[in-house]
Amino acid sequence: MAFSITQLIEERQDDQYALHKSYINPSMTRVLGIIGFNKKYVRGKGAYLWDIEGNRYLDLLAAYGVFNLGRDHPVVNRVLQEMLTLERPTLVKMDVPLLSGLLAEELVKRMPPGLDAVFFANSGADAVDTAFKFARAATGRPRILFLDHAFHGLTLGTLPANGGAVFREGFGPLMPGFDMVEMNDLDTLEQELHKGDVAAFIVEPIQGKGVYIPEDDYLPEAQRLCRQYGTIFICDEVQAGMGRTGRFLSHQHWELEPDIVTIAKSLSGGYIPVSACIMRRSIYQKTFGPLDRCQVHSTTFGQNDMAMAAGLATLHVIDEEKLVERSARVGEKLLAGLAALMERHELIADVRGKGLMIGIEFRPPSGLKLKAAWMAAETAQKGLFSQLLVMALMRDHHILTQVGGPGVNIIKLLPPLIIGDEEVEMIVSAFDDVLGEATRLRGRVWSLSGQLIKHALAP
Ligand SMILES: Cc1ncc(COP(=O)(O)O)c(C=O)c1O
Questions:
Q1: Tens-digit pLDDT profile for residues 401-449
Q2: What are the tens digits of pLDDT across the range 9-59?
Q3: Which of 16, 317, 325, 395 is deepest in the core (most CB within 10 A)?
Q4: Among 152, 158, 263, residue to substitute to test ligand 1 (most atoms within 8 Å of Cβ)
């Protein structure tokens, strides 16, 4: 009998949670149940998901920034189908494939001046690992500096550059040579760089965890200091790049000229894992220059034809649909709509972001009874209030959002860049509603808190 994936899916759809409980991550299945995210999604298109019962959900996670084009983009879909008919010989390895050359050429066109050498990898962390290795090889120095709240991946090579202790705990000893500096503290940065042993300083120009944006002069000045002390300046654009913030690369908001840029996530339109580390040729050659070292860094699936074709199609779509401009325009509207809610809801402490990378931060209410409810939630687990809102947005509005980082009362929005006025209105009115509810102790938001607190306190 011929194997049919459609038939297999139809026959086994109901087993999804049981399978994960048995074979993958039972804790994840439990968490999804507790927070009311235990749906059975059967379709994804554009900015929406549909569950098995036909309910539609607006997806503001976009797989943490993978679906900038929206799901199942017809152009990328068609290109991949076309690729499957071509019988091209991918991954020959002792080869220099055409498609990776073409994608490298397209990427270089979109980079700051001087960044003309590309290494393709498979994930964001893989690209950041590459950046660290190449920076060490190019400078002969051991140390890497990173920022508080930073997130650059969870492999053993990127973990020591993680600003969130919760991600590092339990996985030590971590690689030595990594030191954290505070965002906006240029004096300490200079003191560290002055020691002369820093290979690279890595930043997310707009940070993914918490959507923190540095003060205006911080990044340009940090770049200048890096140049002064011979340190490689890396901009990690894995999340904020590819049009997310209303520029193709987020560091363009400050007209920076980093030495290395990393991108990943939506580079393949969400179809194939892929990433790229783009740098100055002089840095690249320090690793690969001698002929006997021309393969000293590699990854088996790097430059695979399907990912490269998807990348080329994705860049084409970003240009054709003017998604970067759209992200800036729609993001401005969404930001303004959410910021206007601050007048009506004292629970909002801040609304910030650029383009369609937006963070909404919350603060305790002033009323005594509500404050007590907030404190009870926060004592059980930091950031629990924003989790309550995430749950209410899902339950009452079918909108998927996420808490913006560990232990913070921030909700992060990363919608596909294709959203428009209709979605902006949906999002703003949903927040208006759940925040209104959150001011009523017996309302729908706090009714979820007892259960969450119980689970938070459970050993
Ligand atoms: C800025 C940044 N760098 C690196 C990574 C790691 O990417 P990946 O999960 O593909 O390894 C992420 C993931 O969210 C990220 O946001």
A1: 999 988 899 999 999 999 999 999 999 999 999 999 999 888 888 888 8
A2: 999 999 999 999 999 999 999 999 999 999 999 999 999 999 999 999 999
A3: 317
A4: 152
pLDDT reported for residue 456: 72
- Each as own residue / partner, the long-range contacts of residues 361-366 (CB below 8 Å, 24 or more positions apart, any chain) are 361/404, 361/408, 361/409, 361/410, 362/386, 362/389, 362/409, 362/410, 362/411, 363/409, 365/439
Distance between CA 357 and CA 225 in Å, rounded?
A: 28
**Tokens 């991949």 map to which residue?**
80
Ligand 1 centroid – CA 369 distance (Å): 40
Q: Which amino acid makes up residue 293? A: R
Reported pTM: 0.97
Residue 291 is encoded by which pair of tokens?
Answer: 């002929």
Tokens of 250: 């987020």
* DSSP-based three-state secondary structure for 81: helix
Residue nearest to atom 7 of ligand 1 (CA): 124
| Helix residue ranges, H only, 40-157 | 62-65, 74-86, 98-109, 124-139
Q: Which two tokens stand for residue 100?
A: 């990776």
CA–centroid distance, 402 to ligand 1, in Å, is 16
pLDDT at 357: 98
Going from the Cα of 304 to the center of ligand 1, the distance in angstroms, rounded, reads 20
